[in-house]
Amino acid sequence: MAGCASPGNIQSTAQKIEPARVGLAAEAATPEVQPLWWQAFGDTTLNDLVDKALADNPSLQVAAARVARAGAAIDNARAADRPNATLSADATRQRYTENGLIPPPLAGTTRTSANLQAGVSWELDFFGRNRAALEAALGSERAARADADAARLMLAGNVVRSYVSLARAFALRDVAERALSQRDETLKLVRQRVDAGLDTNVELRQGEGALPEARVQIAQLDEQIALARNQLAALTAQPAQALAGLKPALAPVQLPAMPAQLGADLLGRRPDIAAARWRVEAATKEVAVARTEFYPDVNLTAFAGFSALGLGNLIEAGSRQIGAGPAIRLPIFDAGRLRANLRGRSADLDAAVQSYNGAVVDAVREVADELASLQAIERQQQEQVAAQAAAESAYELALQRYRAGLGTFLVVLNAESNVLAQRRTAAELKARALDTQAQLMRSLGGGWREADTTAAAPTSTLAAAR
User: How would you describe this protein's topology in the membrane (predicted)?
Assistant: First the structure.
């Protein structure tokens, strides 16, 4: 017994991070997000696109296949704790050597040997190996379900963000078209003044050069529109031609009030964190399985059947064979295989814990970043409104002075450039606000609850978990 293989002091060393370390307060509450959070944008077309993506996107089918595979692993683990029955039948035509252990009259003859046998075996799980394997499979299956929910949440967020990107490109294109129209009107005025001898060809060339610049901007935005439409089509698994007439224009979302400090309940609202936590649970059980491999295996076996030389007398009373008994196996010297396996499982557990810790840190950072961005965007929008009003007023004054012959055309161009820049800034800030709002909704969990995964699990899985 002193020479038996021993697990020694091999164990995992990683520890799960405490919520307080990343700034999550136990007494604070994270704001609620509705499960269909994208409907807050008030766009029925967007709602239809998200629904179509969630129904047809291939990545979700891959996630569903992984859940099904994890469910099969549960059934496989459960089967190891139950009796197994087998039925075997074989027949062999063989010539027996004259110079071997088989004596005459069989030696030197060719005979047919046959067996027909039924057997039953049952591994007695004295040390909890099968139970730990089942719990590991349950944890992996729950992690797969949480991963599938995270994939759905990410897909919905990507559809919304692509939709916002398309709306941004159209808003900027409207500004560019207005710039082209404005510069065309200004060029007409310059030509009139040149014909009247009030301006020179310098002002005329300046006015003519402004038109190609505006057309280049429109062409660039047309490219962005095409790319955004292609991305949206890919996410919703349909041809880009189906979205040819789509021109979105979104309104800002009324976000829930955010507390001064996020609550620890955020960890239970993120499917990616839940999946990481379930992987830690599964890895813990895998370590337990690796430890039980150092303990004896106890099996009960029984068989009954027929065995005979010649098929003619196979089913006879004298050909019967019956046996039953226990079997025990204990590892003694295995050249370190079991210890290496335990070290590997412990390392897997350390990796799972650190992955969970990384997911928690990233989740808190994402929410903090998006809140900071929204606050900054709100301040920028307030200042931009004032700046745009001043630029519009300056442009009108410059144009009036130019028409009255009191100013130069260069002043008009500069004033017009400031107006167009402010209009582009307004569209950019609105698109950034919408995009950041969508990211915040996803970072807050998108209305997901851990109970949703448990409720979706098969009845047999929940019974085994209980």
Answer: Lipid-anchor
Distance of alpha carbon 448 from alpha carbon 435, whole angstroms: 20
Residue 256, pLDDT score: 62
- The single-letter DSSP state of residue 18 is P
CB 418 within 8 A of CB 398: no
Q: What number is the average pLDDT over the span 20-45? A: 83
* 3-state SS, residue 244: coil
CA 356 – CA 139 distance, rounded (Å) = 14
| Contact in structure between 296 and 259 (CB atoms under 8 Å) | no
Distance CA 133, CA 62 (A): 25
Nearest to 69 by CA among 131, 128, 130, 148: 148
- Tens-digit pLDDT profile for residues 375-398: 899 999 999 999 999 999 998 998
Extract the tokens encoding 124: 């007695």
311 and 418 inside one domain: no
3-state SS class at 117: strand
The domain total for the chain is 2
pLDDT of residue 387: 94
| Residues 393, 396, 402, 405, CA torsion sign | negative
Q: Is residue 111 part of a domain?
A: yes
Both 42 and 98 in one domain: the answer is no
Are 302 and 408 within one domain?
no
- DSSP for 142-211 reads HHHHHHHHHHHHHHHHHHHHHHHHHHHHHHHHHHHHHHHHHHHHHHHHHHHHHHTTSS-HHHHHHHHHHH
Domain membership of residue 325 as a residue range: 82-124+298-329
The fraction of the chain above a pLDDT of 90, given in percent, is: 30
For the packed helices 201-235 and 44-56, what is the interaxial angle rounded to 10 degrees? Answer: 40
